[in-house]
Write a structure and sequence with these properties.
The chain has 302 residues and is an alpha+beta fold. The chain has nine helices and 14 strands. 48% of the residues are buried.
Amino acid sequence: MKQFILELAESVYKEVSKSRGLLKNRFVHGYSIGGDAQFDIDQTAEEAVLDFIAASKKEVAVYTEDQGLITFGENPEYIMIIDPIDGTRPLAAGLEMSCISIAVSKYSQEAKIKDVQYALIKELKSGAYIYSDYQMKGIEYQGYPVSLPNLSKNNDLGNMFWSIEFNGHPAKLMLDAYGHLVDRSANNGGIFIFNSATFSISRIITGQLDAYVDIGNRLLKDNPALLPLFQSVGNGKVLHLFPYDIAAIVFLAQKAGVVITDAYGETLNETLLTDLSYHNQQSCIAASTPELHQKLLKNINW
């Protein structure tokens, strides 16, 4: 399975690389099952995934962002949760903040993040990757200039380098919740918007960031009356963290020692892998140290 997913990711990487710099990559041709805009480059990556698996003759179930569940063969042993491009907008703009994300568990309609056995993220700009599986204690990686994990020891909110999310998140609502933390850290630290949970959390593993915060789904669960507001900025849908956004990177972050939970401070392991409803979508707070994680939980204006 390790070799299979490494070769799959490399195939997608090569195919996507052919489309770099093309303005057509920015054209929206439709919307995913969950409601996220699908650009032309998304279609290229989706086709690369399905073509590779079909050619391999491997009997697996595959769940992708755009296509949903597809079964190859009659008796699949595994289900692969794949986001062919997590970070479509940066990739369409020729930036580096995008990855292919692959998580694999035994096949079950009730499979959860805790059931993931193999995980890989591969950067679609550089080709660097991070991999681990259920038999490994840590992570395996290639293409990074430092040894991984390279977790920051910063515990100061004012010096924090962190990323946040705005896609599908009403800007005023988000800033009411953590605008004071943005103000506090923007000068002595750094605040970034990458539009990719996978890339953001992987930057904690590399030591480039101290934390990642996406609190939209907690705010909605705390106050269901906010549903129309979230739908108004999500093409009529709720666009929080889908399982395919985080299945691989949560597994890898845990292996690397990152403190990663939902925005309540609870485990993400019970997240169903193929349920896209906003009840199963997630929030996330990830940090390089337990102390910084707790400070974020306590200082956001819930």
